[in-house]
Amino acid sequence: MKKNRITKNLSNSSLSAVVKKEANAFIKNMNGNGSKSNMHSLFLNDTERTLIDERTLIDTVLETCNGNVTKSADFLGISRGTLIKRIKEYNLKIK
Q1: pLDDT exceeds cutoff 90 at 18
Q2: Tell me, what's the pLDDT at 23?
Q3: Which CATH number fits domain 53-95: 1.20.1270.50, 3.40.30.10, 1.10.10.60, 1.20.120.640?
Q4: Could you tell me if 59 and 91 are in contact, meaning their C-beta atoms sit under 8 angstroms apart?
Q5: Can you tell me the distance from the alpha carbon of 1 to that of 66, in angstroms, rounded to the nearest whole number?
């Protein structure tokens, strides 16, 4: 249950507010032509490319935690073993 201590309700996060604001602006700009917008894919693909870059996220957390793998795994909400696997997969250097 340590994961619950670190994570917040996404609906209360500033990221969620930004996505909602941008989605509303996008819909307004479509002027009723939303049936051909492919909005779901557009937003998810853009989000995945810019915000959910797992390699960068792991590298940043490791750096912030001074290379402490156990602390980084706890912060990320994944097991230490999974983090070690990802470190190897992305050829990250622990500083």
Answers
A1: no
A2: 76
A3: 1.10.10.60
A4: no
A5: 24
**End-to-end CA, the chain:** 28
* Residues 57 and 90: beta-carbon distance below 8 Å: no
> CA 40 to CA 38: how far, in whole Å?
6
pLDDT grade for 11, boundaries at 50, 70 and 90: very low
Alpha helices in 7-53 (DSSP H): 14-30, 39-50
What's the mean pLDDT in 66-95?
A: 92
Summarize the confidence of residues 71-75 as an average pLDDT: 92
Distance, CA of 87 to CA of 92 (rounded, Å): 5
Side chain identity at 2, as an amino acid letter?
K
CA distance 21 to 13: 13
